[in-house]
Amino acid sequence: MVDDELWALIEPLLPPWPERSPGPRPVSDRLCLQGILFVLYNDIAWQLLPLELGFGSGQTCWRRLDRWQQAGAFDRLHRALLAELNAAGELDWSRACVDGSHIRAKKGGADTGPSPVDRRKTGSKHHLICDGRGTPLKVITTAANVNDVTQTLALVDGIPPVAGRPGHPRRRPESLLGDKGYDSNAHRDALRNRRILPVISRKGSPNIKGIGKLRYVVEQTFALLHQFKRLAVGSLICFRRLKKARS
Predict the structure, then answer these.
(1) Which of 46, 68, 104, 188 fits a 20 to 30 Å CA distance from 17?
(2) Beta strands 136-143 and 122-131: pairing type?
(3) pTM for the complete prediction?
(4) What is the pLDDT of residues 131-166, one digit of tens each?
(5) Tell me, what's the pLDDT at 161?
(6) Cβ proximity of 34 and 236 under 8 Å
(7) Which intervals hold domain Insertion element IS402-like (predicted)?
């Protein structure tokens, strides 16, 4: 699950261990990453990670993941992969799309709330902004009952500066597409102030032509994103697309 190319990108971003770390020699970072991906991809509890796989215990993998996330390793990986995709001409900055997707949260947590689409069961929501090809630029997790429109500007402003091309790193798409859940004149004005053309359907009117096709691309991105839960903010999706572009 962690080939040499992916490991070469991730390894330099991980925080180093102290030279004189007390206790037994820790499980290698690469094996822990394999264990992390195994747990998240198969949607099993950490304690059910089979020791015979050689990835360490589930508790070890969970602690390593928390340590890496606290250090911002996956955010830096996401930015590096976006730069590689941008350099290869694989990012479509002519338009971006915002959307939200509900996920069930059986154990609750800080970013959970009653889901309006799942009989008020506890859940969360992923809010996503992606480019015109479905590449994730920013993902935000909130409680399931948070309205999509409230996250519009947070998503736009959360796009990291993407290098890879001559000139200043890019952070803004030319236009932003959204369905009726993002209908807000105040947000349209705020997008125009950011030099982004709002292409957002209005409540009570048919959806704007072209939104349905792009939302299909977004649904595919959500399906991949949910495979790995909160991991890497779409970094693995970006890596897959980069490999495909290079092949």
Answers:
(1) 46
(2) antiparallel
(3) 0.81
(4) 988 899 999 989 888 999 999 999 999 999 999 999
(5) 95
(6) no
(7) 3-78
Block residue for tokens 């020699």: 25
Cα 202 from Cα 179, distance rounded (Å): 8
Radius of gyration of the chain (CA): 19
- Please compute, for residue 20, the number of CA atoms within 13 A of its CA located in the half-sphere on the CB side: 0
Query: CA 165: distance to chain centroid?
Result: 22
Rounded Cα gap, residues 122 and 106, in angstroms: 7
Q: One-letter amino acid identity for 224?
A: L
- Evaluate if residue 107 carries a pLDDT over 60: no
How far apart CA 198 and CA 7 sit, in angstroms, is 39
Q: How far is residue 97's CA from residue 218's CA, in Å, rounded to a whole number?
A: 8
d(CA 33, CA 11): 10
Nearest alpha-carbon partner for 146 in 116, 121, 119: 116
Reported as half-sphere exposure (CB side, CA atoms, 13 A), residue 30 has a value of 11
Q: What is the pLDDT of residues 168-222, one digit of tens each?
A: 999 999 999 998 999 999 999 999 999 999 999 898 887 777 677 767 777 777 7
Which DSSP symbol is given to 49? Answer: S
Whole-angstrom Cα distance, residue 50 to residue 46? 9
